Amino acid sequence: MSNRHNDGSAGDANYGVIGKGYISYRQPDPHIASFILSALGDARTVLNVGAGAGSYEPVDREVTPVEPSASMRAQRPAHLPSATDAVAERLPFADQSFDASMATFTIHQWSDLRAGLREMRRVTRGPVVVLSCDPKELHRCWLNDYAPEMIAVEARRYPEPDAIAEALGGPVEILPVPIPLNCVDGFGEAYYGRPERLLEPGARLANSAWSFVDASVGDRFVAELGRDLANGTWDARYGALRTQPFFEGSLRLFVARP
């Protein structure tokens, strides 16, 4: 069973706390969205599991969102359909109800990865599309030098790609998704060339991993990064990233076909 917080959050993150300004920093990035739309193909009916505030939901299809956090459901824009209060492990739909299903930045918060992905496969006739991160690649970002505790938390939370593919079953394509320089979806690596943004409390709050480390880690991160940006140390080490159009980080798209 999924553990729920008081606001109805499922999984390990309490979006009643961290979700309040989430959509200010976590907008769907068009480059990343293009990978998802391509994977969905010509599907007309799409299930979005762990839908949150609606990032990456296609607006040209019939989408059924599922989201257990009340605070995240409340942040869904008016032009998107209302989300059903349910968890991935127990989807309230009949077998093969949808042409395709999707899950973005959510599987690491599920209480039972295998059960959730099995449920997605059960209710889906066509492709099951999952956006996640490869935990072995998270250390490649400069963030690991300033907040290794936070990166370690992320690495423990994200499932290994092989575990995801095995749980999905059948043929699974794993696509690396390059992260664009001005990525508007503010997960950690999205700021690879814009370090100043991560000095903003809201930017860190919109990344749930920061809520799993002691506040002193964030305080130290701000102090050390602020100092190194001011004295030029960060730019001496990583300045080339400011103009690098894409970063080959940990982002992966899993496309499972029946």
UniProtKB/TrEMBL annotation:
Residues 47-125 form the Methyltransferase type domain. One of its GO terms (molecular function) is S-adenosylmethionine-dependent methyltransferase activity. Signal peptide: none annotated. GO terms for biological process: methylation. InterPro entries: Methyltransf_11, SAM-dependent_MTases_sf. Pfam families: Methyltransf_11. Keywords: Methyltransferase, Plasmid, Transferase. It comes from the Bacteria. This is Class I SAM-dependent methyltransferase. The lineage of its organism: Bacteria, Pseudomonadati, Pseudomonadota, Alphaproteobacteria, Hyphomicrobiales.
